[in-house]
Amino acid sequence: MQSHEVDYQIFGGDMQFVEVELDPGEVVVGEAGTMMFMEDGITFESVMGDGSEPDAGLWGKLKSAGKRALSGEGLFLTHFTNSGAPGKAKAAFAAGYPGKIIPVDLAQYGGEIIAQRDAFLCAAMGTKLDIAFQRGIGTGIFGGEGFILQRISGDGMAFLHAGGSIQAIQLNNQTVRLDTGCLVAMQPSLQYSIERAGNLKSMFFGGEGLFLATVSGTGWVWLQSLPFSRLASRVLANAVGPQADDSRGMLSGMFERS
Measured in whole angstroms, how far is the alpha carbon of residue 3 from the centre of its chain? Predict the structure, then answer.
């Protein structure tokens, strides 16, 4: 199914939202709870499945919903349709924490990307959402996002959300090493694996975690500077008391001087 051709504009700096413009009859599919506003003439409906296979039937919708549940997402997506406006009408979407919105024209990236579970924000109707299992037990356990990622495919626009600032890197038979939580999305042509973060001293007291992710090959990879898990852990640490963060720095400093 060919995706609907939607126009869009992204607003904001560190707390962005995307405004999607729909012609009569056009549809945008959004993650539940991400709608910011919609103009008169836009109707919405919560449905099972992404709508990319309209003839899938009840079993197909249940299967799609089951996959979303397996990945930790909600069972339903929301379809926003320009069904009443005589001309164009707009709907806007925003995520629940500070960050940037990444517009991805899937047709320009081979029709498919692999993204972390909570990265999807919205997409043009016709975009297919599926799950992608990580290869390797070590990658699944220590990869920061578990065994299951999202497979987003189609030929239209999809919008991802990530924390902090975004860096898109094009690899040409190259390798980049990164914090396991900083991966947002990548092309399926790239290889993703997990390796130990240096020696035991660096692993436990270096502040970079026990493992690093390695992405290699040829293709595009998108990184985020502030994963939500990192933001949440810092908030919790300061809620308990400043000693939690300071003690880690003291231990690291002791070993640095040793």
Answer: 20
- DSSP string for 73-129: --SEEEEEEE-S-SS-EEEEEE-SSSEEEEEEEGGGGTTEEEE-TT-EEEEETT-EE
On whether the CB atoms of residues 74 and 22 are closer than 8 A, the answer is no
Per residue in 177-220, pLDDT tens? 888 789 999 999 999 887 766 555 554 554 555 678 889 999 99
Candidates 2.20.25.10, 3.30.70.360, 3.30.1540.20, 3.60.160.10; CATH matching 7-164 = 3.60.160.10
As beta bridge partners, residue 28 has: 80, 124
Residue 251 CB contacts under 8 Å (≥ 6 apart), including other chains: 205
Q: What is the rounded CA–CA span in Å between residue 172 and residue 216?
A: 9
Q: How far is CA 40 from the centre of its chain?
A: 29
- Please state, in angstroms and rounded to a whole number, the distance separating the CA atoms of residues 256 and 249: 10
Distance CA 65, CA 63 (A): 5
Distance of CA 19 to the CA centre of its chain: 18
User: What pLDDT is stored for residue 63 in this prediction?
Assistant: 58
pTM, 2 dp = 0.78
Query: Residue 90 pLDDT more than 50?
Result: yes
d(CA 53, CA 49): 9
Which helix H or strand E contains 176, and what residues bound it? strand 166-179
Rounded CA separation 126/178 (Å)? 32
For the chain, give the mean pLDDT: 79
CB 149 within 8 A of CB 132: yes
